[in-house]
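Support case: user asked for a sample of complex input and structure output to validate their parser. Sending the pair below.
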Amino acid sequence: MAAAKTRTSTFSRNLSTAPPSHGPGLKCGPNGTVFLSSGIPDLDKILGGGFPLGSLVMVMEDAEAPHHMLLLRNFMAQGLVLGQHLLYSSPARDPRGFLGTLPSPAASKDDKSRERDPDQEKGLRIAWQYKKYFGENQLDGQRDGKHEYSNEFDLRKPLERHFINGPRIDCVSIQDSDLSTLRDRCATFLSQFPRNDGSISCAGRIAIQSFCAPQCAYSNMEWDMLSFIRSLKSMVRSSNSVAIVTFPPSLLSPSFCKRWQHMADTLLSVKAIQDEDKELAQLLTGYQDMVGFLNVHKVARINTQVY
Amino acid sequence: MAESIYRALRDGALEGELAPALTIKDSVASPFALQVFSHVISQLFSSILAGKSQSRGLVVVSFSRSPSFYLDLLKNKGTDVASSNKQIQILDCYSDPLGWKDQLAGSRNFTALSNEAMVSSNAIVFREVKHMDKLYNSIIELGKDQISSIFWLLHSDLHEARVTAVLEYLSSIVASLEPSHQLANGQRGDLENFSLIKHNSKKGKFHVRFKKRNGRVRVMSEEVHIEQSGINFASLPSEGAINQGLVPKVQFSLQLSEKERIDKANVVLPFEHQGNGKPIQIYDGRRSLVDSKHERPVSAVENVQTNENCGSGEIIYYRDSDDEMPDSDEDPDDDLDI
Protein backbone atom coordinates (compact mmCIF):
# COMPACT_ATOMS: atom_id res chain seq x y z
CA MET A 1 0.00 0.00 0.00
CA ALA A 2 3.01 2.15 -0.38
CA ALA A 3 2.18 4.67 -3.01
CA ALA A 4 -1.50 4.20 -2.66
CA LYS A 5 -3.48 7.05 -3.99
CA THR A 6 -5.77 7.84 -1.14
CA ARG A 7 -9.29 7.14 -2.12
CA THR A 8 -12.28 8.97 -0.86
CA SER A 9 -14.37 5.84 -0.81
CA THR A 10 -13.97 2.18 -1.51
CA PHE A 11 -15.89 2.47 -4.77
CA SER A 12 -14.53 4.11 -7.89
CA ARG A 13 -16.83 5.09 -10.66
CA ASN A 14 -16.83 3.94 -14.20
CA LEU A 15 -16.48 7.32 -15.83
CA SER A 16 -16.46 7.05 -19.56
CA THR A 17 -17.06 10.68 -20.33
CA ALA A 18 -15.58 13.67 -18.64
CA PRO A 19 -18.04 15.54 -16.43
CA PRO A 20 -19.57 18.54 -18.18
CA SER A 21 -18.01 21.84 -17.32
CA HIS A 22 -20.30 24.47 -16.02
CA GLY A 23 -20.39 28.19 -16.03
CA PRO A 24 -19.02 30.34 -13.24
CA GLY A 25 -20.61 30.12 -9.88
CA LEU A 26 -21.68 26.52 -10.22
CA LYS A 27 -20.18 23.60 -8.48
CA CYS A 28 -20.72 19.92 -9.08
CA GLY A 29 -21.68 17.90 -6.12
CA PRO A 30 -22.34 14.22 -5.44
CA ASN A 31 -25.17 12.42 -7.17
CA GLY A 32 -25.15 14.71 -10.14
CA THR A 33 -26.41 17.76 -8.34
CA VAL A 34 -25.07 21.16 -9.23
CA PHE A 35 -24.80 23.75 -6.50
CA LEU A 36 -25.20 27.47 -6.37
CA SER A 37 -23.65 29.50 -3.58
CA SER A 38 -25.87 31.20 -1.02
CA GLY A 39 -23.43 34.07 -0.72
CA ILE A 40 -22.33 33.00 2.73
CA PRO A 41 -19.51 30.44 2.56
CA ASP A 42 -20.18 29.09 6.04
CA LEU A 43 -23.82 28.48 5.19
CA ASP A 44 -22.74 26.67 2.03
CA LYS A 45 -20.62 24.36 4.11
CA ILE A 46 -23.44 23.63 6.50
CA LEU A 47 -25.79 22.84 3.66
CA GLY A 48 -23.33 20.51 2.00
CA GLY A 49 -22.14 22.70 -0.84
CA GLY A 50 -24.78 25.33 -1.37
CA PHE A 51 -28.28 25.42 -2.77
CA PRO A 52 -28.87 22.73 -5.40
CA LEU A 53 -30.13 23.96 -8.73
CA GLY A 54 -33.82 23.47 -9.07
CA SER A 55 -34.63 23.78 -5.40
CA LEU A 56 -36.95 26.08 -3.55
CA VAL A 57 -35.53 27.66 -0.41
CA MET A 58 -37.91 29.11 2.13
CA VAL A 59 -36.84 31.32 5.01
CA MET A 60 -39.08 31.89 7.99
CA GLU A 61 -38.67 35.44 9.15
CA ASP A 62 -38.83 36.72 12.68
CA ALA A 63 -41.34 39.54 12.93
CA GLU A 64 -39.04 41.31 15.33
CA ALA A 65 -35.85 41.45 13.30
CA PRO A 66 -34.81 42.03 9.71
CA HIS A 67 -32.26 39.22 9.53
CA HIS A 68 -33.85 37.63 6.48
CA MET A 69 -32.73 40.71 4.59
CA LEU A 70 -29.13 39.77 5.31
CA LEU A 71 -29.65 36.37 3.73
CA LEU A 72 -31.32 37.92 0.72
CA ARG A 73 -28.64 40.55 0.31
CA ASN A 74 -25.86 38.01 0.26
CA PHE A 75 -27.79 35.72 -2.07
CA MET A 76 -28.51 38.48 -4.54
CA ALA A 77 -25.08 40.04 -4.41
CA GLN A 78 -23.44 36.66 -5.01
CA GLY A 79 -25.51 36.15 -8.10
CA LEU A 80 -24.73 39.57 -9.50
CA VAL A 81 -21.02 39.31 -8.88
CA LEU A 82 -20.87 36.00 -10.75
CA GLY A 83 -22.95 37.20 -13.67
CA GLN A 84 -26.05 35.20 -12.92
CA HIS A 85 -29.50 36.53 -13.65
CA LEU A 86 -31.70 37.78 -10.86
CA LEU A 87 -35.40 38.38 -10.36
CA TYR A 88 -36.27 40.24 -7.17
CA SER A 89 -39.69 41.02 -5.85
CA SER A 90 -40.72 42.72 -2.64
CA PRO A 91 -43.77 44.40 -1.13
CA ALA A 92 -42.17 47.83 -1.37
CA ARG A 93 -43.37 50.22 -4.01
CA ASP A 94 -39.95 50.52 -5.50
CA PRO A 95 -37.92 47.33 -5.11
CA ARG A 96 -34.97 48.84 -6.94
CA GLY A 97 -34.20 50.84 -3.85
CA PHE A 98 -33.17 47.70 -2.04
CA LEU A 99 -30.54 46.97 -4.64
CA GLY A 100 -28.59 49.93 -3.35
CA THR A 101 -28.03 48.13 -0.08
CA LEU A 102 -26.39 45.05 -1.58
CA PRO A 103 -22.92 44.41 -0.23
CA SER A 104 -19.73 44.30 -2.18
CA PRO A 105 -17.29 41.38 -2.03
CA ALA A 106 -14.81 41.72 0.78
CA ALA A 107 -11.18 42.15 -0.08
CA SER A 108 -9.75 38.65 0.05
CA LYS A 109 -7.87 37.89 3.19
CA ASP A 110 -4.77 35.76 2.93
CA ASP A 111 -5.33 32.09 3.21
CA LYS A 112 -3.63 31.67 6.51
CA SER A 113 -6.62 29.98 7.97
CA ARG A 114 -6.34 27.20 5.43
CA GLU A 115 -2.84 26.24 6.35
CA ARG A 116 -3.70 25.46 9.87
CA ASP A 117 -2.36 22.05 10.60
CA PRO A 118 -5.34 19.95 11.50
CA ASP A 119 -3.46 18.29 14.28
CA GLN A 120 -2.94 21.49 16.15
CA GLU A 121 -6.55 22.41 16.62
CA LYS A 122 -6.77 24.24 19.87
CA GLY A 123 -5.23 21.44 21.87
CA LEU A 124 -7.85 18.88 21.00
CA ARG A 125 -6.37 15.93 19.18
CA ILE A 126 -8.60 13.37 17.71
CA ALA A 127 -7.65 9.78 16.96
CA TRP A 128 -9.90 8.68 14.15
CA GLN A 129 -9.71 5.46 12.26
CA TYR A 130 -10.90 6.82 8.94
CA LYS A 131 -8.76 9.89 8.87
CA LYS A 132 -6.66 8.49 6.09
CA TYR A 133 -9.54 8.73 3.65
CA PHE A 134 -9.93 12.43 4.05
CA GLY A 135 -6.54 13.86 3.51
CA GLU A 136 -7.17 14.71 -0.12
CA ASN A 137 -10.48 16.43 0.03
CA GLN A 138 -9.58 19.32 2.18
CA LEU A 139 -6.97 20.68 -0.12
CA ASP A 140 -8.29 20.56 -3.60
CA GLY A 141 -10.52 23.18 -5.03
CA GLN A 142 -10.36 25.33 -1.98
CA ARG A 143 -7.89 27.97 -2.90
CA ASP A 144 -8.19 29.28 -6.39
CA GLY A 145 -11.61 27.96 -7.10
CA LYS A 146 -12.97 29.72 -4.11
CA HIS A 147 -13.74 33.05 -5.60
CA GLU A 148 -15.33 31.57 -8.64
CA TYR A 149 -18.01 29.98 -6.56
CA SER A 150 -18.59 32.04 -3.48
CA ASN A 151 -17.35 35.25 -1.92
CA GLU A 152 -17.35 36.78 1.47
CA PHE A 153 -19.24 40.00 1.50
CA ASP A 154 -18.55 43.23 3.29
CA LEU A 155 -21.86 44.69 4.37
CA ARG A 156 -20.37 48.09 4.91
CA LYS A 157 -19.51 48.62 1.28
CA PRO A 158 -22.23 48.88 -1.32
CA LEU A 159 -22.05 46.89 -4.49
CA GLU A 160 -20.63 48.67 -7.50
CA ARG A 161 -23.19 50.33 -9.65
CA HIS A 162 -22.38 48.52 -12.85
CA PHE A 163 -23.53 45.28 -11.30
CA ILE A 164 -26.87 46.76 -10.35
CA ASN A 165 -27.56 48.56 -13.57
CA GLY A 166 -26.96 45.58 -15.76
CA PRO A 167 -29.61 43.93 -17.91
CA ARG A 168 -29.62 40.82 -15.80
CA ILE A 169 -31.81 42.16 -13.02
CA ASP A 170 -35.54 42.33 -12.99
CA CYS A 171 -37.60 43.77 -10.15
CA VAL A 172 -41.27 43.30 -9.39
CA SER A 173 -43.30 45.00 -6.73
CA ILE A 174 -45.96 42.75 -5.27
CA GLN A 175 -47.81 45.42 -3.38
CA ASP A 176 -50.36 46.21 -6.02
CA SER A 177 -49.97 43.46 -8.52
CA ASP A 178 -51.70 40.17 -8.06
CA LEU A 179 -50.37 36.66 -8.02
CA SER A 180 -50.94 35.85 -11.67
CA THR A 181 -48.76 38.77 -12.74
CA LEU A 182 -46.01 37.58 -10.46
CA ARG A 183 -46.37 34.04 -11.73
CA ASP A 184 -46.06 35.20 -15.33
CA ARG A 185 -42.95 37.22 -14.57
CA CYS A 186 -41.37 34.22 -12.88
CA ALA A 187 -42.28 32.00 -15.80
CA THR A 188 -40.71 34.29 -18.39
CA PHE A 189 -37.62 34.66 -16.22
CA LEU A 190 -37.22 30.93 -15.73
CA SER A 191 -37.70 30.15 -19.40
CA GLN A 192 -34.22 31.53 -19.96
CA PHE A 193 -32.67 28.62 -18.10
CA PRO A 194 -34.25 25.40 -19.22
CA ARG A 195 -32.76 22.27 -17.85
CA ASN A 196 -31.32 19.76 -20.24
CA ASP A 197 -28.48 17.31 -20.04
CA GLY A 198 -25.78 19.45 -21.51
CA SER A 199 -23.56 21.83 -19.69
CA ILE A 200 -25.14 24.78 -17.99
CA SER A 201 -24.20 28.13 -19.38
CA CYS A 202 -25.84 30.34 -16.86
CA ALA A 203 -28.10 30.02 -13.88
CA GLY A 204 -30.79 32.21 -12.46
CA ARG A 205 -31.81 33.33 -9.01
CA ILE A 206 -35.23 34.38 -7.83
CA ALA A 207 -35.60 36.24 -4.54
CA ILE A 208 -39.09 36.94 -3.21
CA GLN A 209 -39.14 38.91 -0.01
CA SER A 210 -41.86 38.82 2.66
CA PHE A 211 -44.28 36.96 0.49
CA CYS A 212 -47.35 37.22 2.72
CA ALA A 213 -46.70 40.71 4.08
CA PRO A 214 -49.89 42.58 4.97
CA GLN A 215 -49.19 45.33 2.45
CA CYS A 216 -49.88 42.94 -0.39
CA ALA A 217 -53.39 42.83 -1.69
CA TYR A 218 -53.54 39.07 -1.84
CA SER A 219 -52.28 38.45 1.70
CA ASN A 220 -55.70 37.20 2.81
CA MET A 221 -55.95 34.62 0.07
CA GLU A 222 -54.11 31.76 1.66
CA TRP A 223 -55.01 29.05 -0.83
CA ASP A 224 -53.98 31.22 -3.73
CA MET A 225 -50.63 31.94 -2.17
CA LEU A 226 -50.10 28.26 -1.55
CA SER A 227 -50.87 27.38 -5.13
CA PHE A 228 -48.47 30.07 -6.29
CA ILE A 229 -45.71 28.51 -4.26
CA ARG A 230 -46.59 25.10 -5.66
CA SER A 231 -46.35 26.31 -9.23
CA LEU A 232 -43.15 28.22 -8.50
CA LYS A 233 -41.62 25.08 -7.08
CA SER A 234 -42.47 23.06 -10.16
CA MET A 235 -41.20 25.76 -12.53
CA VAL A 236 -37.94 26.06 -10.64
CA ARG A 237 -37.47 22.29 -10.54
CA SER A 238 -37.35 22.07 -14.29
CA SER A 239 -34.95 24.95 -14.74
CA ASN A 240 -31.40 25.78 -13.73
CA SER A 241 -32.16 28.19 -10.99
CA VAL A 242 -32.77 28.57 -7.29
CA ALA A 243 -35.66 30.48 -5.73
CA ILE A 244 -35.64 31.94 -2.22
CA VAL A 245 -38.94 32.96 -0.66
CA THR A 246 -39.03 34.62 2.76
CA PHE A 247 -42.19 34.91 4.77
CA PRO A 248 -43.20 35.82 8.33
CA PRO A 249 -44.87 32.69 9.72
CA SER A 250 -46.75 34.50 12.46
CA LEU A 251 -48.97 36.14 9.87
CA LEU A 252 -50.30 32.87 8.52
CA SER A 253 -52.78 30.58 10.12
CA PRO A 254 -51.05 27.57 11.71
CA SER A 255 -52.17 24.99 9.16
CA PHE A 256 -50.98 27.10 6.25
CA CYS A 257 -47.75 27.80 8.00
CA LYS A 258 -47.15 24.04 8.13
CA ARG A 259 -48.15 23.59 4.51
CA TRP A 260 -45.71 26.22 3.38
CA GLN A 261 -42.95 24.63 5.40
CA HIS A 262 -43.63 21.30 3.73
CA MET A 263 -43.43 22.93 0.31
CA ALA A 264 -39.84 23.99 0.84
CA ASP A 265 -36.91 21.95 -0.35
CA THR A 266 -34.57 23.77 2.00
CA LEU A 267 -36.08 25.42 5.05
CA LEU A 268 -34.24 27.98 7.15
CA SER A 269 -35.43 30.26 9.88
CA VAL A 270 -33.99 33.34 11.51
CA LYS A 271 -34.62 34.49 15.01
CA ALA A 272 -33.75 37.62 16.92
CA ILE A 273 -31.61 37.65 20.03
CA GLN A 274 -32.70 39.44 23.14
CA ASP A 275 -30.58 42.36 24.08
CA GLU A 276 -28.73 42.30 27.39
CA ASP A 277 -29.66 38.78 28.20
CA LYS A 278 -27.21 37.77 30.89
CA GLU A 279 -27.82 34.05 30.68
CA LEU A 280 -27.31 33.99 26.98
CA ALA A 281 -24.18 36.07 27.36
CA GLN A 282 -22.76 33.45 29.70
CA LEU A 283 -23.63 30.58 27.42
CA LEU A 284 -22.36 31.98 24.18
CA THR A 285 -18.99 33.48 23.58
CA GLY A 286 -19.09 36.39 21.23
CA TYR A 287 -22.59 37.28 22.40
CA GLN A 288 -21.83 40.94 21.95
CA ASP A 289 -21.30 40.52 18.24
CA MET A 290 -24.26 38.34 17.56
CA VAL A 291 -27.52 39.63 16.28
CA GLY A 292 -29.57 36.53 15.68
CA PHE A 293 -29.86 32.81 15.20
CA LEU A 294 -30.15 30.87 11.98
CA ASN A 295 -31.79 27.46 12.12
CA VAL A 296 -31.61 24.92 9.34
CA HIS A 297 -34.76 22.84 9.47
CA LYS A 298 -34.61 20.99 6.21
CA VAL A 299 -31.99 20.45 3.54
CA ALA A 300 -32.87 19.71 -0.08
CA ARG A 301 -32.98 16.05 -0.98
CA ILE A 302 -33.06 16.10 -4.76
CA ASN A 303 -31.26 13.27 -6.57
CA THR A 304 -30.66 11.32 -3.44
CA GLN A 305 -32.07 8.31 -1.76
CA VAL A 306 -30.92 9.35 1.66
CA TYR A 307 -33.68 10.25 4.01
CA MET B 1 -39.25 52.07 30.99
CA ALA B 2 -42.43 53.81 30.15
CA GLU B 3 -39.94 56.61 29.92
CA SER B 4 -38.14 54.82 27.11
CA ILE B 5 -41.37 54.48 25.18
CA TYR B 6 -42.11 58.11 25.63
CA ARG B 7 -38.64 59.05 24.51
CA ALA B 8 -38.83 56.83 21.44
CA LEU B 9 -42.10 58.42 20.37
CA ARG B 10 -40.96 61.88 21.20
CA ASP B 11 -37.76 61.61 19.23
CA GLY B 12 -39.65 60.34 16.27
CA ALA B 13 -38.29 59.17 12.98
CA LEU B 14 -34.67 59.43 12.04
CA GLU B 15 -33.53 60.41 8.59
CA GLY B 16 -34.42 57.81 6.02
CA GLU B 17 -36.17 55.49 8.42
CA LEU B 18 -39.71 54.62 9.23
CA ALA B 19 -41.44 56.35 12.11
CA PRO B 20 -41.64 54.43 15.38
CA ALA B 21 -44.94 52.64 15.80
CA LEU B 22 -46.22 51.50 19.16
CA THR B 23 -48.88 48.91 19.90
CA ILE B 24 -50.41 48.95 23.36
CA LYS B 25 -52.38 45.82 23.91
CA ASP B 26 -54.26 44.35 26.78
CA SER B 27 -56.80 41.70 27.51
CA VAL B 28 -59.71 41.18 29.83
CA ALA B 29 -57.44 39.85 32.56
CA SER B 30 -55.60 43.12 32.78
CA PRO B 31 -57.57 45.88 31.05
CA PHE B 32 -55.41 48.89 31.67
CA ALA B 33 -54.44 49.79 28.17
CA LEU B 34 -56.60 52.88 28.16
CA GLN B 35 -54.79 54.24 31.18
CA VAL B 36 -51.46 53.58 29.57
CA PHE B 37 -52.66 55.14 26.36
CA SER B 38 -53.87 58.26 28.17
CA HIS B 39 -50.59 58.46 30.03
CA VAL B 40 -48.62 58.34 26.80
CA ILE B 41 -50.87 60.92 25.15
CA SER B 42 -50.57 63.39 27.97
CA GLN B 43 -46.82 63.04 28.17
CA LEU B 44 -46.43 63.41 24.45
CA PHE B 45 -48.70 66.40 24.27
CA SER B 46 -46.90 68.26 26.99
CA SER B 47 -43.65 67.72 25.19
CA ILE B 48 -45.21 68.96 21.96
CA LEU B 49 -46.35 72.11 23.68
CA ALA B 50 -42.93 72.58 25.21
CA GLY B 51 -41.40 72.17 21.78
CA LYS B 52 -39.21 69.27 22.88
CA SER B 53 -40.47 66.69 20.49
CA GLN B 54 -39.91 66.16 16.82
CA SER B 55 -43.60 66.44 16.10
CA ARG B 56 -45.47 69.68 16.22
CA GLY B 57 -49.01 68.47 16.54
CA LEU B 58 -51.11 65.59 17.69
CA VAL B 59 -53.96 63.93 15.88
CA VAL B 60 -56.18 61.74 18.02
CA VAL B 61 -58.61 59.34 16.44
CA SER B 62 -61.07 58.46 19.12
CA PHE B 63 -63.25 55.40 18.83
CA SER B 64 -64.25 54.39 22.30
CA ARG B 65 -64.23 57.67 24.17
CA SER B 66 -65.66 61.00 23.26
CA PRO B 67 -63.34 63.84 22.35
CA SER B 68 -64.21 65.63 25.54
CA PHE B 69 -62.59 62.76 27.46
CA TYR B 70 -59.28 63.53 25.88
CA LEU B 71 -59.63 67.26 26.23
CA ASP B 72 -60.47 66.90 29.90
CA LEU B 73 -57.59 64.55 30.35
CA LEU B 74 -55.17 67.03 28.94
CA LYS B 75 -56.67 69.83 30.95
CA ASN B 76 -56.28 67.82 34.12
CA LYS B 77 -52.66 67.30 33.38
CA GLY B 78 -52.22 71.00 33.40
CA THR B 79 -51.85 71.71 29.73
CA ASP B 80 -53.76 74.62 28.40
CA VAL B 81 -55.87 73.16 25.68
CA ALA B 82 -57.83 76.21 24.73
CA SER B 83 -54.89 78.11 23.49
CA SER B 84 -53.33 75.19 21.74
CA ASN B 85 -55.92 74.79 19.05
CA LYS B 86 -53.57 74.22 16.26
CA GLN B 87 -51.61 71.55 18.01
CA ILE B 88 -54.24 69.03 18.75
CA GLN B 89 -56.85 67.76 16.38
CA ILE B 90 -59.32 65.08 17.23
CA LEU B 91 -61.05 62.95 14.67
CA ASP B 92 -64.24 61.97 16.37
CA CYS B 93 -65.21 58.46 15.40
CA TYR B 94 -67.14 58.06 18.61
CA SER B 95 -70.24 60.22 18.24
CA ASP B 96 -71.51 58.88 14.98
CA PRO B 97 -69.12 56.51 13.27
CA LEU B 98 -71.52 54.97 10.78
CA GLY B 99 -73.60 58.02 10.09
CA TRP B 100 -76.75 56.70 11.74
CA LYS B 101 -77.78 59.95 13.34
CA ASP B 102 -77.79 61.65 9.99
CA GLN B 103 -79.94 58.94 8.53
CA LEU B 104 -82.36 59.11 11.42
CA ALA B 105 -82.60 62.86 11.19
CA GLY B 106 -83.41 62.60 7.53
CA SER B 107 -86.06 59.89 7.71
CA ARG B 108 -88.58 61.37 10.12
CA ASN B 109 -89.14 64.17 12.55
CA PHE B 110 -86.24 63.74 14.76
CA THR B 111 -84.52 66.52 16.53
CA ALA B 112 -80.98 65.73 17.19
CA LEU B 113 -80.07 66.02 20.80
CA SER B 114 -77.89 68.94 21.34
CA ASN B 115 -75.03 67.24 23.11
CA GLU B 116 -73.07 68.13 20.13
CA ALA B 117 -72.83 71.66 21.32
CA MET B 118 -70.14 70.37 23.59
CA VAL B 119 -67.91 69.48 20.74
CA SER B 120 -65.19 71.99 20.60
CA SER B 121 -63.60 73.32 17.54
CA ASN B 122 -60.86 70.81 17.93
CA ALA B 123 -62.97 67.82 17.11
CA ILE B 124 -64.17 66.89 13.70
CA VAL B 125 -66.89 64.34 13.45
CA PHE B 126 -66.23 61.51 11.08
CA ARG B 127 -69.14 59.48 9.86
CA GLU B 128 -67.78 56.92 7.51
CA VAL B 129 -65.65 54.57 9.48
CA LYS B 130 -66.47 51.71 7.13
CA HIS B 131 -64.56 53.37 4.33
CA MET B 132 -60.96 52.89 5.34
CA ASP B 133 -59.63 55.01 2.52
CA LYS B 134 -61.64 58.00 3.60
CA LEU B 135 -60.63 57.50 7.20
CA TYR B 136 -57.01 57.37 6.17
CA ASN B 137 -57.31 60.48 4.06
CA SER B 138 -58.99 62.44 6.84
CA ILE B 139 -56.27 61.53 9.26
CA ILE B 140 -53.58 62.60 6.83
CA GLU B 141 -55.37 65.86 6.13
CA LEU B 142 -55.61 66.70 9.76
CA GLY B 143 -52.01 65.91 10.26
CA LYS B 144 -50.83 67.95 7.32
CA ASP B 145 -47.18 67.07 7.66
CA GLN B 146 -45.11 63.95 7.74
CA ILE B 147 -45.79 61.55 10.51
CA SER B 148 -43.24 61.52 13.28
CA SER B 149 -44.60 58.67 15.36
CA ILE B 150 -47.78 56.69 15.66
CA PHE B 151 -49.33 54.57 18.36
CA TRP B 152 -52.54 52.67 18.87
CA LEU B 153 -54.47 50.81 21.48
CA LEU B 154 -55.60 47.26 20.90
CA HIS B 155 -57.79 44.96 22.93
CA SER B 156 -56.41 41.62 21.93
CA ASP B 157 -59.52 39.69 22.99
CA LEU B 158 -61.65 41.46 20.43
CA HIS B 159 -59.65 40.50 17.39
CA GLU B 160 -58.52 37.36 15.67
CA ALA B 161 -55.02 36.24 16.41
CA ARG B 162 -53.97 37.07 12.89
CA VAL B 163 -54.97 40.71 13.17
CA THR B 164 -53.02 41.10 16.38
CA ALA B 165 -50.05 39.37 14.74
CA VAL B 166 -50.16 41.71 11.76
CA LEU B 167 -50.25 44.79 13.96
CA GLU B 168 -47.35 43.50 15.99
CA TYR B 169 -45.47 42.79 12.77
CA LEU B 170 -45.94 46.38 11.66
CA SER B 171 -45.02 48.06 14.91
CA SER B 172 -41.55 48.73 16.19
CA ILE B 173 -42.49 48.70 19.87
CA VAL B 174 -44.99 46.29 21.39
CA ALA B 175 -46.25 47.01 24.88
CA SER B 176 -48.51 44.45 26.48
CA LEU B 177 -50.29 44.36 29.78
CA GLU B 178 -50.61 41.17 31.69
CA PRO B 179 -52.05 40.30 35.04
CA SER B 180 -49.58 40.03 37.90
CA HIS B 181 -51.00 36.72 38.99
CA GLN B 182 -52.40 34.20 36.65
CA LEU B 183 -55.75 32.88 37.79
CA ALA B 184 -56.29 29.18 37.89
CA ASN B 185 -58.91 28.13 35.40
CA GLY B 186 -62.35 27.19 36.51
CA GLN B 187 -62.00 27.83 40.18
CA ARG B 188 -63.84 30.99 40.58
CA GLY B 189 -65.30 30.51 43.97
CA ASP B 190 -62.05 30.04 45.73
CA LEU B 191 -61.15 32.51 48.40
CA GLU B 192 -57.63 32.68 47.21
CA ASN B 193 -58.74 33.57 43.74
CA PHE B 194 -60.84 36.44 45.00
CA SER B 195 -57.85 38.12 46.45
CA LEU B 196 -55.96 37.52 43.24
CA ILE B 197 -58.76 39.07 41.24
CA LYS B 198 -58.73 42.02 43.54
CA HIS B 199 -55.01 42.37 43.05
CA ASN B 200 -55.35 42.13 39.33
CA SER B 201 -57.83 44.94 39.23
CA LYS B 202 -55.37 47.35 40.63
CA LYS B 203 -52.08 46.34 39.21
CA GLY B 204 -50.50 44.39 36.46
CA LYS B 205 -47.32 43.74 34.58
CA PHE B 206 -46.20 45.85 31.72
CA HIS B 207 -43.95 44.15 29.17
CA VAL B 208 -42.36 46.06 26.36
CA ARG B 209 -40.46 44.70 23.40
CA PHE B 210 -38.40 47.16 21.40
CA LYS B 211 -37.24 46.17 17.95
CA LYS B 212 -33.84 47.67 17.58
CA ARG B 213 -32.14 48.59 14.39
CA ASN B 214 -29.40 46.03 14.68
CA GLY B 215 -31.96 43.27 14.78
CA ARG B 216 -31.94 42.61 18.49
CA VAL B 217 -34.98 42.81 20.69
CA ARG B 218 -34.91 44.67 23.94
CA VAL B 219 -37.32 43.31 26.50
CA MET B 220 -38.29 45.29 29.59
CA SER B 221 -40.83 44.74 32.29
CA GLU B 222 -42.36 46.93 34.89
CA GLU B 223 -45.15 46.81 37.34
CA VAL B 224 -48.13 49.00 36.84
CA HIS B 225 -50.40 50.40 39.55
CA ILE B 226 -53.69 52.02 38.78
CA GLU B 227 -54.74 54.72 41.14
CA GLN B 228 -57.29 57.45 41.24
CA SER B 229 -54.88 60.01 40.02
CA GLY B 230 -53.63 57.97 37.16
CA ILE B 231 -51.15 55.30 36.52
CA ASN B 232 -47.82 54.55 38.14
CA PHE B 233 -44.96 52.52 36.88
CA ALA B 234 -42.60 50.79 39.20
CA SER B 235 -39.79 48.42 38.56
CA LEU B 236 -40.58 44.78 38.89
CA PRO B 237 -39.58 43.13 42.14
CA SER B 238 -37.00 40.51 41.40
CA GLU B 239 -38.49 37.12 41.79
CA GLY B 240 -35.65 35.39 43.50
CA ALA B 241 -35.49 32.66 40.94
CA ILE B 242 -33.04 29.95 41.67
CA ASN B 243 -30.15 30.96 39.54
CA GLN B 244 -28.09 27.91 38.87
CA GLY B 245 -24.72 28.61 37.53
CA LEU B 246 -24.16 27.30 34.08
CA VAL B 247 -21.10 25.32 35.01
CA PRO B 248 -22.15 22.64 37.48
CA LYS B 249 -20.10 22.04 40.57
CA VAL B 250 -18.46 18.64 40.40
CA GLN B 251 -16.23 16.76 42.71
CA PHE B 252 -13.32 16.34 40.39
CA SER B 253 -11.17 19.03 38.92
CA LEU B 254 -11.57 19.80 35.27
CA GLN B 255 -8.41 21.78 34.89
CA LEU B 256 -5.03 20.43 33.91
CA SER B 257 -1.85 21.12 35.77
CA GLU B 258 1.27 21.99 33.83
CA LYS B 259 2.81 18.54 34.10
CA GLU B 260 -0.42 16.95 33.01
CA ARG B 261 -0.51 19.21 30.03
CA ILE B 262 2.94 18.20 28.91
CA ASP B 263 2.16 14.55 29.33
CA LYS B 264 -1.00 14.92 27.35
CA ALA B 265 0.92 16.47 24.49
CA ASN B 266 3.27 13.54 24.43
CA VAL B 267 0.69 10.83 24.11
CA VAL B 268 0.82 9.13 20.76
CA LEU B 269 -2.67 8.49 19.51
CA PRO B 270 -3.43 5.48 17.31
CA PHE B 271 -4.44 6.90 13.92
CA GLU B 272 -2.80 10.23 14.24
CA HIS B 273 -0.11 9.96 11.66
CA GLN B 274 -2.24 8.58 8.88
CA GLY B 275 -2.81 10.64 5.83
CA ASN B 276 0.80 11.77 5.80
CA GLY B 277 1.67 9.71 2.78
CA LYS B 278 3.60 7.10 4.65
CA PRO B 279 2.63 3.49 4.39
CA ILE B 280 0.07 2.46 6.89
CA GLN B 281 1.07 -0.29 9.20
CA ILE B 282 -1.43 -2.04 11.28
CA TYR B 283 -0.24 -2.87 14.73
CA ASP B 284 -0.97 -6.45 15.42
CA GLY B 285 0.94 -7.00 18.60
CA ARG B 286 3.61 -9.14 16.98
CA ARG B 287 6.25 -6.88 15.65
CA SER B 288 8.51 -9.57 14.23
CA LEU B 289 5.88 -10.68 11.80
CA VAL B 290 5.08 -7.21 10.59
CA ASP B 291 7.06 -7.28 7.40
CA SER B 292 5.99 -10.60 6.09
CA LYS B 293 2.41 -10.01 6.93
CA HIS B 294 2.29 -6.94 4.84
CA GLU B 295 3.36 -8.52 1.66
CA ARG B 296 0.19 -10.37 1.16
CA PRO B 297 -2.24 -7.52 1.16
CA VAL B 298 0.16 -5.18 -0.61
CA SER B 299 0.69 -7.43 -3.56
CA ALA B 300 -2.96 -8.01 -3.95
CA VAL B 301 -3.55 -4.34 -4.17
CA GLU B 302 -0.70 -3.55 -6.47
CA ASN B 303 -1.93 -5.45 -9.46
CA VAL B 304 -5.23 -3.87 -9.25
CA GLN B 305 -3.83 -0.42 -9.07
CA THR B 306 -2.28 -0.56 -12.49
CA ASN B 307 -5.65 -1.21 -13.95
CA GLU B 308 -7.20 1.54 -12.03
CA ASN B 309 -7.66 4.04 -14.74
CA CYS B 310 -8.94 1.71 -17.41
CA GLY B 311 -12.43 2.65 -16.74
CA SER B 312 -13.57 -0.43 -14.95
CA GLY B 313 -15.14 -0.02 -11.60
CA GLU B 314 -13.79 -1.98 -8.71
CA ILE B 315 -14.00 -2.40 -5.04
CA ILE B 316 -10.97 -2.26 -2.86
CA TYR B 317 -11.24 -3.40 0.66
CA TYR B 318 -8.65 -2.60 3.22
CA ARG B 319 -8.73 -4.95 6.05
CA ASP B 320 -8.80 -3.28 9.35
CA SER B 321 -6.99 -5.88 11.24
CA ASP B 322 -4.13 -7.51 9.59
CA ASP B 323 -4.20 -11.11 10.46
CA GLU B 324 -7.40 -12.55 11.53
CA MET B 325 -7.25 -16.26 11.95
CA PRO B 326 -10.74 -17.60 11.71
CA ASP B 327 -10.48 -19.29 15.05
CA SER B 328 -8.66 -16.64 17.02
CA ASP B 329 -10.42 -14.46 19.49
CA GLU B 330 -11.20 -11.05 18.19
CA ASP B 331 -8.79 -8.76 19.85
CA PRO B 332 -10.23 -5.27 19.76
CA ASP B 333 -6.75 -3.81 19.77
CA ASP B 334 -6.00 -5.38 16.42
CA ASP B 335 -6.77 -2.30 14.46
CA LEU B 336 -4.94 0.16 16.61
CA ASP B 337 -2.29 1.87 14.58
CA ILE B 338 0.43 3.58 16.56
